[in-house]
Predict the 3D structure of the following.
Amino acid sequence: MKTTFAFAAVAAFVAVSAPAQAENLVFSSWGGTTQDAQKAAWASPFTEKTGVTVVQDGPTDYGKLKAMVEAGQVSWDVVDVEGDYAAQAGKNGQLEKLDFSVIDKSKLDPRFVTDYSVGSFYYSFVIGCNADAVSACPKTWADLFDTAKFPGKRTFYKWSAPGVIEAALLADGVPADKLYPLDLDRAFKKLDTIKSDIIWWSGGAQSQQLLASAEAPFGSVWNGRMTALAATGIKVETSWEQNITAADALVVPKGSPNAEAAMKFIALATSAEPQAALAKATGYAPINLDSAKLMDPETAKTLPDQQTASQVNADMNYWAENRDAIGEKWYAWQAK
């Protein structure tokens, strides 16, 4: 059903055609249900339209991508990466400039467009809770850091990326419009108060399992994982209070052997109906500005772009400029 929906858009997307020399195109993403949805909404229709086979690979690994580019042996053509990484890698010469004569950026959310990347989808870090497992669910970041009021294990994203540091500062009373530059010492001091109660998740599927099993009945998770968890029949509560937005991006590694086909794949993937199909399947927001009107209103209202009352936009440019320095301090703190 998802493939059929996406293919309807592709039938009208006459600008997409594969270069004669390209028989395969390799797409790397993060695996799990999100990559399954990307395959159904984007890859399968692209193959049906162009005859180019889209080979799925992953999970995305920044060290591997960098090594490919430096060795001149690039085997990935389109890669789903985090938005701050895309900004940094573009500046560092690791990505091809995108061809906006092929990709129509006029229809895309400008927050997620650079010379080297366009948004894949955008998501929010929300406070997720298995309501079947606890007597009360945390509603705010301050609640999530309150082990007296909400005892037990809680889960947070393991890697150095937007989300956790911002949540710690918000929990400590920093106003949303004063988050940047990030006060890392203050954030780590706040995180120290719950460090022994944190179970780190390294991928979306793990965060979902931690909540489902109640090993960590609440935590900071991607909103789409709460959508997936609710679909299993578990009673969940999602708090959108000060939800923290970030985005994935689509990039083409420097030296991709199929860069021309990669641009056309990205053009399709970011067009309105394939973006709407992905949003419907994942619970993540589309980055095409025309997608929302193609979606069922009941589905559309559950997406991050409809949860703006107290929404906090993570600063991707700040993270791109400071990614390495933050990462060094983050992993040193985790190892203590």
The longest strand covers residues 236-251.
